[in-house]
Write a structure and sequence with these properties.
122 residues; mainly beta; 7-stranded mixed beta sheet; 4-stranded antiparallel beta sheet; 11 strands; 50% strand; globular
């Protein structure tokens, strides 16, 4: 069974940091570019950034550049999202996703995680 399971979400104060993890199973993780996407309440899903199979990083959203970074550990079949300097507007459900082909904007998502909620509040 193909699975992407996110963890690490929760409540954080503005200016704080969190690291999300996404554990993959049921497919060859190292063959897939991986991305993080978020969905704020009442809004659509927004792609944040992506890491290719050779660890090249692409940012989709300028507002997270310099604050968020993505990494992967193919030995652990896990992708990470390190979030620093969090702002109230970063509050959302965060999803990891396996891209179908590459990290170019508009590429289809082949697999989705179930999401993890981030709340940014004092």
């Amino acid at each position: 069974e193909v699975q992407l399971v996110e963890s690490g979400g929760g409540l954080v104060q503005p200016g704080g940091s969190l690291r999300l993890s996404c554990a993959a199973s049921g497919f060859t993780f190292s063959n897939y570019p991986m991305s993080w996407v978020r969905q704020a309440p009442g809004k659509g899903r927004v792609g944040l950034l992506c890491i290719s199979t050779n660890d090249a990083i692409s940012y989709y959203l300028n507002s997270v550049k310099g604050r968020f970074t993505i990494s992967r550990d193919n030995a652990k079949n896990t992708v990470y999202l390190q979030m620093n300097s969090l702002k109230p507007e970063d509050a959302a459900v965060y999803y990891c996703a396996a891209q179908r082909h590459n990290c170019r904007g508009g590429d289809a998502v082949d697999k989705w995680g179930q999401g993890t909620l981030i709340t940014v509040s004092s």
